[in-house]
Specification:
The chain is 36% helix and 13% strand. It has 243 residues and is an alpha/beta fold. The chain has a seven-stranded mixed sheet, with helices on both faces. Helix 2 links the parallel strand 2 (33-37) and strand 3 (67-70).
């Protein structure tokens, strides 16, 4: 299976929390979509690895993903070392994504920060014919990497209108039931398990949507210059900010 767009995030619910709406929209456009969870979330405060795996499968169905895999790196111990890079390069060469969505750099969670670096390095290495020649996998074109703006105050390069897909995004998030508010749970509380956390997430999507004059949005930034074919089409797209 090859995909057009691949979301690579640390834990089994991170894809849904950050780019679920974008993945649903890309699927609606007819693109092949995929998710790669880098760890199994075994250091999470709530839930078991087995249960979180089942939740991820259910969320994948809601997001209509063509493929969802787990890289199996150790939760809390993800680094951009050569073993991890080789592991990820082999997945990228097999799935051949054109676009990768991932964490932003300098995220306060070490795994998130290291994955941003790991993804950028692996995307480049996957295009180098002599890297990991022993696997026999062919090199690929370097995928563009778009970082989801989530934990740091960063001006987005672009915002994806997910107005028609916000409900589906929230449904996919809710599939990870072990991680969020449950009034009868006896497990320890975290910020994610607070009663208002999911409302905060939805409000966040609505805030970024308001910046482009729509109901909901997901923000991204890219570090490379974008090659724009038609700047007039891009810059005159209706935003309804002053109507």
């Amino acid at each position: 299976m090859q995909v057009d767009i691949l979301a690579i995030f640390a834990h089994p619910d991170d894809v849904e929390l950050t780019v679920g709406g974008t993945l649903l929209k890309m699927k609606e456009f007819g693109y092949r979509t995929g998710a790669l969870d880098v760890t199994r979330g075994e250091m999470g405060t709530r839930g078991t690895v087995e249960n979180r795996g089942l939740e991820a499968e259910e969320a994948a169905k809601i997001l209509k993903l063509d493929v969802r895999e787990n890289l199996g790196l150790p939760d809390g111990h993800v680094f951009a070392d050569d073993e991890s890079r080789t592991t990820l390069v082999r997945v990228l060469r097999r799935l051949k994504p054109k676009v990768i969505l991932t964490h932003q750099g300098d995220d306060p969670h070490p795994d998130h920060n290291h994955i941003a670096q790991l993804v950028r390095e692996s995307a480049r290495l996957a295009s180098m014919r002599k890297y990991d020649e022993a696997s026999g996998a062919e090199k690929i074109n370097v995928p563009i990497v778009a970082h989801n703006v989530f934990s740091r105050l960063v001006a987005p390069t672009f915002i994806v209108d997910i107005s028609d897909f916000l409900e589906g995004k929230m449904e996919a998030i809710a599939a990870h039931a072990s991680q969020f508010y449950n009034p009868i749970s006896t497990e320890p509380e975290t910020r994610l398990t607070a009663k208002g956390f999911l409302d905060e997430l939805e409000n966040r999507s609505r805030y970024f949507g308001s910046l482009i004059g729509v109901a909901a949005g997901e923000p991204f930034y890219v570090r490379e210059a974008l090659n724009i074919e038609d700047p007039i089409d891009l810059l005159t797209r209706p935003m309804n900010l002053y109507s």
